[in-house]
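We emphasize that the prediction below concerns an isolated chain of 387 residues; any contacts that depend on oligomerization or on bound cofactors are therefore not represented. The input was used exactly as deposited, without trimming of termini.
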Amino acid sequence: MKECQGGVCEGLPLSAGPCSSDEQASQANWAEFKNKIDEVTEISNDKDDYPEKLFDGLRQTLFDMASCPKRTKLLFVIGDHGDRQQQWPPEITKGLKGLADRVLVFFIQTPDNSSQARNPGLYQQVYRTYKKQAYEMLKKTLPPEIQGEAIDDYFLSLDQKQLTTQIVERVKRYSPSARINEFEQALAGGKSLQEIIDQYMAEGDMPVIYKKWFQEPSCPKLGQQCKTAIEHGVVEFYIPIDASKVQEEIWMTATQLADWLALLKPFENLKALPVQKQRAVFAYLLRRQIQDIIGHYPPTNVVLSEWLAKQRKQVLPMRQDSPLLQYSFDDIRRKIEGCEVSLLINWVTEIRKVLQKVSNDPTQKVAFTLLILQIDGIESSLGLSFI
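Result of the prediction step, given as a token string:
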């Protein structure tokens, strides 16, 4: 390999700072990683002794990886020849075994170039030694549950064209944060941790080492759910202080739902207007939208809900004392306080979001977030049932 000093190549110690990074730092680290891999080549110096200082390099690596002990790390050892010393030094074996819970080691051997060596026989001898020493260390440090896997998954011998792609793919396989979210969702649904792990492993979508990484820290906290599924259901509900205010849900046809969505749509951008203009525009839009649905303008001095109730046909289903329809247009234009107009606009905006979700997916289960609004002394809750 090039850029080596005293047999130790490409030394990049981990930062001893905070064990976290933002998106920008992660992207920069990823780019640097790929660039370093692209630069890896075998030495062509005829004066080079074939045995490498593999063990010295790993001694330095143990020191460099000491920071952030709770972080998972992937260690790639890249070389062509084994160390002149035949047996692994005990301190290196002990150090790597001590890190085995959070460090996974990959050995990568560059292509055999014995045909270009001045002493092909010696070259091949130490070339074989690299693989022998790598396998010895993998057997000592890989967790027992991984021993069933082919160790070749952790010892790679690749030509230069494959090298970058294969290593990057392995890093991606061990580093997707989305898998943590998937585990959390499955556990929240009652699945056992063992069931989740077995499912991913059966699909070939998860390395075996994940079983150890997930089970050891999680099972003491999960208890029974580590190995046994938990059957449970969650129902969200609320009980108003005043039972007389409980009202049945409003039933409406798809056409009526579409009419409500059409009526409320023009109000979406009201919040972007200056406060002093919101009142007039709100009154204008409400009157125009009702006229479009019913066919004529309602009178300005009659409460809208009362006027709509007197129509010969029920043009829109609605709840009694709907916040949207409890005023006349004269009230909206001149009488109610500005803060009350703002509450009405907020109510219209949020209720349309709920209706739109129902329209987009009629089979979706509605989940309510209870928000109490005080409008003209009437306590109202924001939710689907209040139109």
